[in-house]
Design brief:
Blueprint (H helix, E strand, L loop, with lengths): L8 E8 L5 H7 L6 H5 L5 E3 L3 H14 L6 E8 L2 E7 L5 E9 L17 H17 L6 E9 L4 E9 L5 E8 L6 H6 L11 H14 L2 E12 L2 E10 L4 E10 L3 E10 L6 E8 L3 E14 L2 E13 L4 E14 L3 E15 L8 E15 L10 E10 L5 E13 L4 E13 L38 E14 L2 E13 L8 E11 L6 E8 L2 E11 L4
Parallel strand pairs: 1-4, 5-7, 8-10
Antiparallel strand pairs: 1-2, 3-4, 6-7, 9-10, 11-12, 12-13, 13-14, 14-15, 15-16, 16-17, 17-18, 18-19, 19-20, 20-21, 21-22, 22-23, 23-24, 24-25, 25-26
């Protein structure tokens, strides 16, 4: 025989003068309503045994929020509903904040005079200051924040003393936990080095870069060991046990239809990373073999790829057998690469505007990125400059491109502006695959990928002169989600250094920052011709 005791369940409600919405109170008590409960106007239920704990949690919450004299009682509304009756009374108010500091901290304080004294905000202010000190390289500071509460006068006085001390430097870097990966590879792929100024920002970005290499399953940076202003940075690593990656992707893109892909990658083939990639879509079919080799020459990485690609453009189709080899070097705010590319290009199924032909294209190239943004995942301040240069050894061809982006933080939201200028100097023998096209989520967002050709070309082929501008305002709507309003303009001409015709794209988007990059969804249209509209989804840094 089994005896089962059932405790009575009560609905929970609130009454009285409330500075907080009921949803906030439910959330603080761990009783967050589901969307279904809100739709049906149903109150959360709890076991009667939990009522004393809920009462204590509610009292603690109101004290943390500055209502030290709040009075809370409970009453039965009916046999199934408990109502917490809240009388907030007079709160504690911040009367003055006295600061003695040789480091700017006023803008880091979330509490201000004449506001309610909220304990979590006081704690957040202290954390903001500590984080800012570490970001600037100060790790041996003297920090003494105090909050004096005069309960009877309902007043709070905040006194902060801060001596930033001297700038800390990296005395030594210790790397442990590697077995097949050389410590040199680790040292070459972090942004902070022995003898340099301590930087929490560089450590954070170093962690992300090491993780992106794919060699390690555990990465930990320890900078707690310091004597005076000298820091010993210890990096603890564990190499991944499963080094083989198989990935299959199936999807649908509005401009390419069905998209399928397959990837195999060996993350540690004697420290190299061989990879096979297959891709199928209506516009592009490709098989590619690549090999990534870290630290092959001094601190340079090397990437080699051979690929066979079939692509479909508006006016022609192409088959390309290509070989690409490049060296890469990256520091905290500067990255560059250089190499050479060889291609055998076949143009076929062409319209009368394009002659079917074959050509060989061999071109050395170089790329430079100056990145002064405050974050590589979701920047809110700073700028970047991206420059490309390529020149052919087999035909008359010179390609030059520069892209500048700038971020500035506004009282509400972030303003982002970008401009890109690209020019091709070449004769008429240039393969049409090498011309400039526009459209897509990295370009004019009212048009699908590569759907904008030269605006003065009767055939719709690509151009030799491109100027693109974008202005985007990003505004937070809920925690971790931003909405965006944008205006894109594109000039694309068949002749070099010619800007006389343009198309516009305006629209709205949603941005969600994540660890793998910012998830972006946009809808754009041409205000002069609504038939040109596009919905795009992108994950990563589209700049």
């Amino acid at each position: 025989m089994f005896l089962i005791a059932y405790a009575k369940m009560y609905f929970i409600d609130f009454a009285g003068k409330l500075s907080f919405e009921k949803e906030r109170l439910y959330e603080e008590l761990g009783l967050k309503q589901s969307w279904w409960q809100k739709l049906r106007n149903r109150l959360p239920q709890v076991d009667e045994k939990l009522l004393p704990a809920l009462y204590e949690e509610l009292e603690l919450f109101y004290k943390e929020q500055g209502f030290w004299d709040a009075q809370i009682s409970a009453a039965l509304r009916n046999e199934n509903t408990i109502v917490f009756i809240i009388q907030e009374n007079r709160p504690i108010i911040v009367k003055n904040i006295a600061i003695t500091s040789n480091f700017p901290i006023s803008n880091l304080l979330t509490l201000k005079p004449h506001q309610r004294f909220i304990i979590p905000e006081f704690i957040k202010s202290k954390e903001n200051i500590k984080k800012a000190l570490l970001q600037k390289g100060y790790c041996s500071y003297t920090f003494n924040p105090k909050a004096y509460i005069l309960h009877k006068k309902h007043s709070a006085y905040i006194v902060i003393y801060l001596d930033k001390g001297r700038v800390c430097k990296i005395k030594d870097i210790q790397i442990s936990g590697t077995s097949t990966i050389s410590p040199k590879i680790v040292a070459d792929h972090i942004y902070i080095h022995k003898g340099e100024r301590f930087s929490k920002a560089k450590i954070d970005e170093s962690y992300k870069r090491l993780y992106s290499l794919g060699y390690f399953r555990t990465i930990h940076f320890d900078y707690s060991k310091k004597i005076k202003n000298q820091v010993t940075l210890a990096i603890y690593l564990k190499e991944r046990q499963k080094k083989h990656l198989y990935k299959i992707g199936v999807g649908f893109e509005s401009d390419q239809g069905f998209v399928g892909s397959f990837t195999y990658k060996d993350f540690n083939f004697y420290t190299h990373q061989p990879q096979i990639k297959l891709r199928y879509s209506r516009l592009k079919k490709q098989i590619a073999l690549s090999l990534f080799s870290p630290s092959v020459w001094q601190s340079y990485d090397m990437s080699n790829e051979i690929a066979y690609t079939k692509e479909e453009f508006k006016q022609f189709k192409s088959r390309i057998l290509g070989l690409r080899s490049k060296f890469l070097q990256e520091s905290f705010s500067l990255a560059y690469s250089f190499g050479i590319e060889a291609q055998k290009i076949d143009i076929y199924s062409a319209s009368p505007c394009v002659k079917s032909h074959s050509s060989t294209f061999i071109a050395p190239f170089a790329k430079l990125l100056i990145d002064r943004r405050n974050s590589k995942i979701f920047p809110t301040q700073g700028y970047f400059l991206l420059a490309d240069l390529a020149s052919s050894l087999t035909t008359t061809y010179l390609f030059a491109s520069a892209e500048l982006g700038y971020y500035t933080k506004l009282p509400k939201g972030v303003l982002f502006a970008k401009a890109k200028l690209a020019q091709i100097f070449a004769d008429n023998s240039l393969p049409p695959t090498k011309l400039l096209y526009a459209g897509g989520i990295k370009s004019n967002r009212a048009y699908s990928y590569r759907s904008i050709g030269a605006l003065n070309s009767p055939c719709g082929l690509g151009g030799k002169s491109l100027l693109e501008t974008s202005i985007e305002f990003r505004y937070p709507i809920i925690k971790g989600v931003y909405t965006a309003l944008f205006w894109d303009r594109t000039y694309l001409n068949a002749k070099t250094l010619r800007f006389d015709k343009s198309v516009d794209g305006i629209g709205i988007g949603t941005l969600i920052p994540s660890q793998i990059g910012t998830i972006k969804a946009y809808f754009g249209f041409n205000p002069s011709d609504f038939s040109h509209n596009f919905v795009g989804l992108y994950i990563g840094a589209a700049f």
